[in-house]
Structure formats: C-alpha cells, structure tokens
Amino acid sequence: MFKKIILILILFSALANGATISGTAFKWYSLEPLDNVIIEINTTPKQIIVSENGDYSFDVSAGNYILKAQYFENNKLVYETEEEIIVENDGVFIVDLLLFPSLIDDESLLDDFNDSILSPEEIAEETDNTANDNNIIAGMVLIVVALILIFYGARKITTSVTGLKTERIGIEEKYFERPKEFLKKETDLAKDELDKDTKEVLEILKRYGGRMTQKDLREKVTFGEAKTSLVVAELENSGKIKKFKKGRGNIIILK
C-alpha cells in the first residue's frame, strides 16, 4: 500500500512538472482548420496523432522539439509544415500551425532550395547586373537635371535682354516644352516595358503550373535579377500573385 502511494505521488509530480503544447492546424490560403491532419512531435517516445478537426495537444517536458504536420489526399502529401519549439519551463504553450503546399514531388523546386546559397560567381554576376541598372538610372537622372539647368539658364539669359519680349517668350516655350515631352516619353517607355515584363512573368508562371520559386523564375525570364524583383513586387501589389518565404528562397504562386 505504501509503495502504491509513493508511485502515485511520483506520477503526479511528473505530470505537475510538465508542459503542454497545443494548437490548431490551418490551411495556408483560407486560414480554415484542416481535417484529418497527422501531427507528431519528437519526444521520447515520439507522439503522433491524427486530428479530425485540426486541433492537437501534447504533454512534454523541458527540451527542444520539432513539431510536424502533414495532410494527405488520395495517399499523396498535399500540405505540410514544421516548427521548432523550445520548452524551458512548465505551462501551456499555444502553437498554431500554418500548412503550405508540399514540394516533395517537385524535384526542380527542391533542387532550387538546395542551391539557394549563391556561389561567389553568382554573387559577382548579380552585383554587376545591379550596378548596370544603377548606372542606367543615374544616367537618366543626369539627363533630366541637365535639361532643367539648360531651361533655367536660357530663361535667365533671355530675361536680361530688353526690347525682345517676343523672342524671350519663344525661347522660354522652346525649353519649357522639351523637358516635359522628354519626361513623358521616358515615363511611357518605362510603363510599356514594365507591362511587357509583367506579361512575360505571368506567361511563365502559367506555363509551369502557376507555382515556382523566384530563383527558377529568374533563370527563365529575359531580364536581370533586379528587374525580376521589381516585377514580382509589382504583381504582388496588384494582387495577381502571392509570394511566400520558404527556407532560403521565395515561392511565387499565381492567383
């Protein structure tokens, strides 16, 4: 009898000094709970449950753990996620899980994640591309500044001449129209080029099933890394794509 009491006290003490990790597994795009999700945690022994409504709960002791969740359809892995959890003290820890599309069947995407760390040659190439783009932008700015200076210089000279009001107005109009036309032409050209680039990115995404990594996209477009980032940001702002961080890369999904 005394031994049974001691055993009960030990078990009660172990339970009292533990922690609980619980939460809900959600779909990445609708934020709705997922049914029949397999959730596991690498305790000793490992704990695995199949949650019918997305909710889960595990009793653990202090330590570092990996919490995994997987969702299957027709025996095929569709969504998954993985979270690292550090438990330092007792209590109840709420950890909700957001499951993203699985990339296991997409070998090209997996290879891209493995190659996401750039080599020194790739870094140098990207630096050169960025420098070239910066040089183009700087040249355009200098042209605009030069035209503005010419305009004000001509205006100052003609203002100092008396008795030539008609000529002065003609000079002002001449140099006033040229910067406006130049800026409008450059703006229209930049807009047309951006529209052309966004169409190219959308066509590539459609061709590859509406989902690919940004690095893979960069290798297939006809322009450089800096412009690829600009076009992706424009499409994301306009609501035509979604971009998610995964590992060291980005996944781009066509809406």
Structure explained in plain terms:
The chain is α+β, with helices and mostly antiparallel strands and 255 residues long. It folds into two domains: 2-102, Carboxypeptidase-like, regulatory domain (Immunoglobulin-like); 120-254, Winged helix-like DNA-binding domain superfamily/Winged helix DNA-binding domain (Arc Repressor Mutant, subunit A, Orthogonal Bundle). The chain contains six helices and eleven strands. The strands form two sheets. Strands 1, 2, 3, 4, 5, 6, 7 and 8 form an eight-stranded mixed sheet that branches. A hairpin with a 5-residue loop joins β2 and β3. α4 (165-207) crosses α6. The longest helix has 43 residues, at 165-207. It is elongated, with a radius of gyration of 31 Å. Mean pLDDT is 76; it is low at 2-15 and 157-178. Keywords: Membrane, Transmembrane, Transmembrane helix. This is DUF7343 domain-containing protein. Residues 196-254 form the DUF7343 domain. The chain crosses the membrane at residues 136-154.
- Total domain count: 2
Task: Tell me the CATH topology of the largest domain.
Answer: Arc Repressor Mutant, subunit A
Number of helices: 6
Radius of gyration (Å) = 31 Å
Provide the CATH top-level class of the largest domain.
Mainly Alpha
> How far from one another are the termini?
67 Å
Number of beta-strand segments: 11
Instruction: Give me the CATH architecture of the largest domain, please.
Output: Orthogonal Bundle
CATH H-level superfamily title of the largest domain? Winged helix-like DNA-binding domain superfamily/Winged helix DNA-binding domain
Largest sheet: 8 strands, mixed
SSE string, helices as H and strands as E: HEEEEEEEEHHHEHHEE
Structural category: alpha+beta
How much is the average pLDDT?
A: 76
pLDDT under 50 segments (min length 5)? 2-15, 157-178
What gross morphology would you assign?
A: elongated
The portion of residues forming beta strands comes to: 25-35%
Q: What percent of residues adopt helix (DSSP H or I)?
A: 40-55%
